Amino acid sequence: MFSQILKNDRGGQIMLVVLAAVLIVVPILNLAVAETSALHIPTYLVTLMGKYLTYALLAVAVDLVWGYLGILSLGHGAFFALGGYAMGMYLMRQIGDRGVYGNPELPDFMVFLNWKELPWFWQGFDQFWFALLMVLFVPGLLAFVFGWLAFRSRVTGVYLSIITQAMTYALMWAFLRNEMGFGGNNGLTDFKDILGFSLQADQTRVALFICSGLALALGYLLCRYVMNSKLGRITVAIRDAESRTRFVGYKVENYKVWIFTLSAILAGVAGALYVPQVGIINPSEFSPLNSIEIVIWVAVGGRATLYGAVLGAILVNYAKTVFTGLMPESWLFMLGALFVLVTLYLPQGLAGLWQPLKTKLGHKPEVAA
Amino acid sequence: MSEGEGAHFYREGALDTSHKAILYLEGLNVSFDGFKAINDLNLYIDAGELRCIIGPNGAGKTTMMDIITGKTKPDSGKAFFGQTIDLLKLSEPEIANAGIGRKFQKPTVFESHSVAENLELAMKGDKRVWFSLRAKLDHEQKALIEETLETIGLTAQYHQQAGALSHGQKQWLEIGMLLVQKPYLLLVDEPVAGMTHQEMERTAELLKSLAGKHSVVVVEHDMEFVRSIANKVTVLHQGSVLAEGSMDEVQQNPRVVEVYLGV
């Protein structure tokens, strides 16, 4: 079945093989190799890589709507953050009476605000399955409603980008308010454990890293499966010639809404895996800048390839880690310069470097038959 | 339709051409910012007919196509497809699925898909999202694609990316995309614009072979081409019908000569 999905996707095959190798080797080097050995990978690095993997999944989600559907979303950080908050709420409830105030029911910030009982929307988050469901449902619902309203009124192009940006900006301000009940400016943090396992333990860290890798692999395969289907061909047709697609009888709005919703759900899953690894979720995740950064990852890696998004997310974030360490002030300028350079000289991103090679190897375009 | 013999029964949503005409446009008016693009337009197209529509720039030809296909809603008037289908109540995809296909003035194909995939996407069938996810071509559909490629002369280009086709080939592919939609009515906007003489002749053959099985409405500027295919010509001027008849009749009409052919 995998071979069917990955047929004609050499980049994806390579990416997944490398990913599988990393998912096997890194845990061994962390858990089974002695700390004194040169081969030992420290836990903070495992977590850092886990974070990159969640970013890669987020980038795949953005590539789905930008690369294949032609919708430049500048608000995908919102879906990522919502997934993260859903997970964060579960982790808060897991703290129980080990908080500073020792209240078994209420998270610390609620005690601090003199709240007497848990708000209705915090109910159920003590159950892991419920939190997981919300990780999928909340970003999905927002994307569905937003998409339904925007696409039905035929908002396209730069206007749509602007309202996606406005959406995430508005959510940022909403989540900053203490009255919203999500911890305001500080967000949710001081997590203790997940499913009874301590978040500080190496084993838990490695497990989260593996989960992130598996989520990336499954998300990738799902996107590839959808894009290989007729639905995928219609998606690309909408990108290339929207009104033509309408005149051959497709309800373009419905297609856009479903692809947008699928993408938002993937972004939510990425956010949910991100939060336990970094240990905090706060309103800055909704910041418009975050969403723009995701778009840059995809542009650097190469649009409409999926594996390009993975590559771009990991490379740009690695560069970010390195350069914010060396020269913190310069990073934003470098990011901007990177975007300009890629747009000018590498419009198809890093994956574009690979295309001429592919034609040389006699790759044939996919065919209907 | 087949049950048109003797008494016929009214069926909601089904095309009913029992009164001969397939398209009724009556008393249509459209204005854009005060400019009357369509002015009390009345036009009837018979089932199986090949009709050419000519007229100077700004006569309202494209606006008329936009109304028929649901892109533009008129200020007043009626547009019916057969006896029963009110086009003004339907969206573009609904009209397409009811059986009206449209070829744009500028050839519009799905450039990053192969020629065969273009036909696959245009093909009549269930066009809902969830169905598309599982849809596979069956033998009948593959045969239809091959047959259509034969008709439009693109069999050798089966796997070729549509964006790499020549201008004329794109025009034919777009006609092919209309054919696999199995429409009852084809609206063809300037099919030979930018074509060589040879390509033009082939296109004329193609359109003539379609009439009878389908009703075809062709909007065209090229008089020689219109003469080569048309039985009946309608001249539009300032958003309404100026004259109607055979090419010869129309060309001798003094009003037509005055506004359009009076070179």
Molecular structure report:
- The complex is a heterodimer of chains A (369) and B (263).
- Chain A is an all-alpha fold.
- Chain A has one domain (44-360).
- In chain A, 69% of the residues lie in helices and 2% in strands.
- Chain A contains 15 helices and 4 strands.
- Chain A has helices at 2-5, 10-31, 43-68, 76-95, 108-112, 128-152, 157-176, 202-228, 230-240, 242-247, 252-278, 288-301, 307-326, 331-345, 349-360; strands spanning 188-189, 193-194, 197-198, 280-281.
- In chain A, a hairpin with a 2-residue loop joins β2 and β3 (197-198).
- In chain A, α3 (43-68) runs parallel beside α8 and α3 (43-68) crosses α12.
- Chain A is globular and about 60 Å long.
- Chain A starts with a helix and ends in a 9-residue tail after the last helix.
- By secondary structure, chain B is an alpha/beta fold.
- Chain B has one domain: Rossmann fold (3-Layer(aba) Sandwich), CATH 3.40.50.
- In chain B, 35% of the residues lie in helices and 24% in strands.
- Chain B contains 10 helices and 10 strands.
- Chain B has a 6-stranded mixed β-sheet, with helices on both faces. Chain B has a 4-stranded antiparallel β-sheet with strand order 2-1-4-5, covered by helices on one side.
- In chain B, α3 (115-122) packs parallel to α6 (167-180) and α5 (139-152) runs antiparallel to α6.
- The longest helix of chain B has 14 residues, at 139-152.
- Chain B is globular.
- Chain B starts with 20 loop residues before the first strand and ends with a helix.
- The interface between A and B is medium-sized, with 29 and 40 residues.
